[in-house]
């Protein structure tokens, strides 16, 4: 009699576990796709679409993912591909700082990158070849900023993985003001970044 009670209890417990697994959205066999751990956010130019960035940040926050903003810099043909491009990087670093500050307010971890290439497309190819990511969120062009339709088409045709193309509905951009440099006696110069909507 005791064994029958034990078996019945085990059967009820097993049935409850199966029902729970069936109804739970992150467990098989009714499982939804797992969340991204690293979201790659490539961008070009000296500004970035605020709406595209905010969309990437919302995804990263919802999925507890790391945002990987990657500034795409072009290297002229007369220079070695690994040559430094200080003029472009001088604008990229304050902008990456601005993105990190915006992400920090939301509690989103950031792992910034600067990638070089002969063209934006070439730099994208180099980036995805060596970078670890689960999803790419890429801003489409809305004039001079973002990637062109041809770049997006090339990306969809040639780059594996999940790609979200974001075309902002408004013109708001973030850009970083150049830090003001001043000499303070016995102190290091301090660089600050600020969010500016243009």
Describe the structure.
By secondary structure, this protein is of the alpha/beta class. It has helices spanning 2-23, 50-62, 86-106, 120-130, 149-158; strands at 38-43, 48-49, 66-74, 113-117, 135-139, 162-166, 173-174. The strands form two sheets. A five-stranded parallel sheet has the order 4-3-1-5-6, with helices on both faces. A two-stranded antiparallel sheet has the order 2-7. The longest helix is centred in the first third of the chain and has 22 residues, at 2-23.
Throw out a few tags for this protein.
single chain, 198 residues, alpha/beta, Rossmann fold, five-stranded parallel β-sheet, two-stranded antiparallel ribbon, elongated, disordered C terminus
Write the layout of secondary structure elements.
Blueprint: H1 2-23, E1 38-43, E2 48-49, H2 50-62, E3 66-74, H3 86-106, E4 113-117, H4 120-130, E5 135-139, H5 149-158, E6 162-166, E7 173-174
Parallel strand pairs: 1-3, 1-5, 3-4, 5-6
Antiparallel strand pairs: 2-7
Number of strands: 7
Our Rg estimate from Cα atoms comes to: 23 Å
**CATH superfamily caption of the largest domain:** HUPs
Q: What is the CATH class designation of the largest domain? A: Alpha Beta
Number of domains: 2
Oligomer: single chain
The H-and-E topology, N to C, reads as HEEHEHEHEHEE
Q: Major β-sheet, in short?
A: 5 strands, parallel
Number of helices: 5
How much helix, percentage-wise, in residues?
25-40%
